[in-house]
Amino acid sequence: MSTLVTLLLAVLPLAAGWAVHVRWLRRCLSTARRDPLTGLRTRDGFTRRATALLKDPRAVVVLADVDKFKQINDTHGHAAGDVLLKATADRLAHHVGRAGVAGRLGGDEFAAVLLDHGTAGDMLTLLHGVLARPVDGHDPAVHTTVSLGWVRAADFPTDDLSGLLRRADEAMYAAKQARSGTRRAGLGRLFATIAGRRSGRTGARAGGPAAGVAV
After folding, report:
1. Which residue among 15, 18, 47, 150 is buried most deeply as judged by most CB within 10 Å?
2. Which of 35, 65, 108, 116 is catalytic?
């Protein structure tokens, strides 16, 4: 018995130390997957959660881009731009809720996956209005609209997350060009892309084959 007690006394500190180390690693990993400005998931963290959500046939992929963001930075300064990005992120995360996921892909580009209960179009129209509101407690001149493109995953069952984001991106671009606020992928005319992304967007390769995608 004394041998067993001695062994336990020797092992317990090691086990406790390992548990602390594991918790520390998890915190580091969680921090690495969070955008320091907005608190949203970064591309890697968003991809992991979004891919899991796409297993649900109700999944809707959304891409959001702040309109004339460079003008805000140039006119009011980068601090004002950061305030706008943080407000946009907070509103998007609140609207998506715990059942979905929102992430900042970079710059003024955000993405989300939410579960549709039959009212996705109305939900995104409402979200568009919410995102356009001035930021409480800040200069009311520092505000802008946000163009939204969205796609039902069930409409393109062979597409993975990357393909659905591409379609949502094209729909967002169409909404921005038409100043319509939101646009659903799969409707309307085609827009050309390079390697699945519009020229100048992340993932586009100069000189790649052009492809069309419905918006």
Report:
1. 150
2. 108
